[in-house]
Amino acid sequence: MNTSIEYPLEFFYPIKNNPQYELKICIGIEESKGLYWVESIILLKESKKIFKVLGKKFNINTIGDAKSFGLKLYSDFVRD
CB neighbours (10 Å) of residue 37? Predict the structure, then answer.
């Protein structure tokens, strides 16, 4: 665990065929457990207002895994 990183981490991804929206992956840490959490959100790109919260997952071992889970939440939403 890298303690010099400031949390939450935020990653933004464009949404193909919907340029007015973007995906935000937010990763935080539960310091007492040394585990991460992730939240996936669809935002209105221009205003950054929340359009839809796709979900949140806790107790993740690494930042990389958290990012993958966040992208999977989006992938599952698109498939449905």
Answer: 20
